[in-house]
Write a structure and sequence with these properties.
alpha+beta, 14% strand, elongated
């Protein structure tokens, strides 16, 4: 490339970085981001090398490359802005890679226009600044495309070695990218005269190496649960496979860059100006398509057809709902087709002017949409639409947590990190400072740590725990307009308004390390007090093996069961040594009851699904002495 081409490249990358870094503190750090971050943290800290990512929308675990690709920022910090900055950096590099690929094929002038359009397409910007798998798939695909171009068009052997392994790495990050296999296959087949068989053999070995972790993860999953894949496929068979929008409508939305606010702000009508700029973009695509068909070899047209037309056709028969982010890998190709319109010599100045207008309107559309999403509450729409709590709110809450206060208790809606965003966020964001961050659901459980602790009351917290933890002097962290605030306060153990219970003279010990220390049976509910050991395992997947159910049976004088309560015990990943846990559940038959029988059992998973396994009660010597403890009631 000559000097002007290098200057163009640097300017385009600066433009891409600028718009992606705009209001970076307003980025989302929601449920999937937190779970992915948790797996990356575990790997960065040397706790595990995951063989699978988080569970996909069809119930099949994602490949572990989704985790491996985002580990580096967690060596530095657990701040979501650091990991988001890493994703932005990858995508800015992706803009540079697109520039290089297009410059080598169509010249540096088309490369500049294509890179500008890709850098400013609102959908491309939105899907390039979050810790979400589809947000960092494209840079690796573009790197694979550059290696394919160098290896199979130019005949460089080292690039033939790397092209397929990098492609497979990228395609494992998000399943939707597999629709591009025919595109890459066509490019490699077109360069068959330059194939170097030893290089291809080495490439095949690297491909096997890249696929090995995922293969091991799938084998591990099927060994534990042989019917996992068949159940996922069966569950998808009866679903609405377009998620409410056809693949072609999603395809058109992303390609034209229009109506991004329909996704980020689903409760707001689409600005008519968005349809105007969308029409302008479609016009440029039509002009570029005409140039592609009339002025370029048929093999190039086939390549564009495979990358632009085949994926939406494939998604028409997909096994899951189809969402806009499935088409993120197509965004660079849309930009290139539009950029080809500038090669029309007679209309070149007009086309360049239209490209400039489109780029400016796109940038303005993104900025205004992001500003609106960051300033007010957005109702969550279908699928993953909507805009959740911005990072600047979450970071302010994290800064209010007092390290000297010891541990953290998060009051939220649900305790399971797989299903509650607040339960997943805070163990990630506070990992650097606190080793024990617990999440309490809105009712049924209360925990009292051994020392002074910090309580984070989230907007999702219900009223069930509001009276237990005194937060009158808590700091209020304002949320977006229209949203409930967060509250952060320091609490001493003696301040907790715990339920009254009768203490057991001798605590009952179970073989999971939990002790039953007290009980109460009145007013239609059974209250149990427990002493907890430290969590057996806090890792994302491994901790679930230690989750159990508990039961409380009410027996009359004849030993007949007259009432019972069965419920999930507080999840094991939240246990901290020395914590006192209170549980309460509704129960019948308390009047005239003679015995309260309490025990634990584990629900079978995978091959053991449908079975239950009782936990042992231990005697004073630590030997099993039965599967429950009977408490004589006064």
């Amino acid at each position: 490339m000559h000097r002007r081409a290098w200057v163009g490249l640097l300017l385009v990358m600066a433009l891409a970085a600028g718009i992606r870094l705009y209001r970076l503190d307003a980025v989302e750090f929601y449920h999937d981001e937190a779970m992915l971050a948790m797996l990356a943290q575990e790997m960065a800290d040397g706790q595990t090398v995951p063989l699978q990512g988080i569970v996909s929308s069809v119930g099949i675990p994602n490949p572990p490359t989704t985790v491996y690709s985002v580990v580096p920022p967690f060596w530095l910090s657990d701040d979501p802005l650091v990991s988001t900055g890493w994703v932005v950096l990858l995508n800015v590099a992706g803009v540079g890679l697109l520039y290089a690929v297009v410059a080598r094929q169509f010249g540096w002038g088309v490369a500049v226009v294509a890179a500008v359009l890709y850098a400013l397409n609102p959908w491309a910007v939105m899907y390039s600044r979050k810790l979400w798998a589809q947000d960092y798939t494209v840079p690796f695909l573009l790197l694979a495309l550059l290696f394919t171009q160098i290896g199979f068009r130019d005949g460089r052997r080292w690039a033939q070695v790397l092209a397929a392994p990098v492609m497979l790495w990228a395609m494992q990050i998000h399943f939707a990218a597999w629709a591009l296999v025919p595109f890459f296959g066509w490019l490699m087949l077109a360069g068959r005269r330059r194939w170097h068989w030893p290089s291809l053999a080495l490439s095949l070995g690297l491909c096997a190496l890249v696929l090995t972790p995922f293969a091991l993860g799938i084998a591990q999953t099927l060994a534990q649960d042989p019917d996992r894949l068949s159940r996922s496929l069966a569950a998808s068979a009866g679903r609405d496979l377009d998620g409410g929008r056809s693949p072609w409508l999603n395809w058109l939305m992303l390609g034209s860059g229009q109506a991004v606010e329909s996704w980020m702000l689903p409760d707001q009508a689409v600005d008519p100006a968005a349809w105007l700029v969308g029409g302008l973009a479609v016009g440029l695509m039509l002009l570029g398509g005409w140039v592609l068909v009339r002025r370029h070899p048929w093999a190039v047209g086939v390549a564009f057809g495979l990358v632009l037309v085949l994926p939406p056709l494939a998604f028409d028969v997909a096994l899951s709902d189809v969402w806009p982010h499935y088409f993120v890998p197509l965004l660079p190709a849309f930009a290139v087709v539009m950029a080809l319109a500038v090669t029309l010599a007679r209309w070149r100045r007009v086309v360049i002017g239209l490209v400039g207008v489109c780029a400016v309107l796109w940038a303005g559309q993104w900025v205004s949409t992001l500003d609106a999403a960051a300033s007010r509450t957005v109702s969550i729409g279908a699928g993953t639409s909507g805009y959740t709590t911005p990072a600047f709110v979450l970071r302010e809450v994290a800064h209010r947590v007092t390290p000297s206060a010891g541990d953290v208790v998060v009051l939220t809606r649900e305790m399971d990190i797989w299903f509650d965003s607040e339960a997943a966020r805070w163990p990630v964001m506070l990992r650097d400072t606190f080793g024990c961050v617990r999440a309490l659901p809105s009712d049924g459980y209360a925990v009292v740590p051994a020392g002074t602790f910090t309580v984070i009351e989230t907007p999702d917290a219900g009223a069930g725990l509001s009276g237990l933890y005194p937060l009158a002097e808590a700091v209020t962290v304002e949320n977006r307009r229209g949203a409930l605030p967060y509250r952060v306060g320091v609490v001493r153990p003696e301040q907790v308004r715990a339920p009254d219970v009768t203490a057991l003279e001798v605590p009952a010990s179970f073989d999971n390390g939990v002790q039953l220390t007290g009980y109460a049976l009145a007013e239609g509910r059974v209250v149990l007090r427990w002493r907890l050991p430290d969590a057996p395992d806090r890792r994302f997947y491994e901790s679930r093996a230690h989750d159990v159910q508990f039961f409380a049976h009410v027996l009359d004088a004849a030993g007949a069961r007259v009432g019972q309560a069965d419920a999930r015990f507080w999840q094991a990943r939240h246990w901290c040594a020395g914590d006192t846990l209170y549980t309460w559940q509704p129960v019948t038959g308390a009047e005239g009851a003679a015995v309260l029988r309490v025990g634990f059992y584990r629900l079978g998973q995978g091959r053991e699904a449908g079975q239950t396994f009782a936990l042992d009660v231990l005697d004073t010597l630590g030997n099993p002495s039965g599967n429950w403890v009977d408490i004589a009631l006064q």
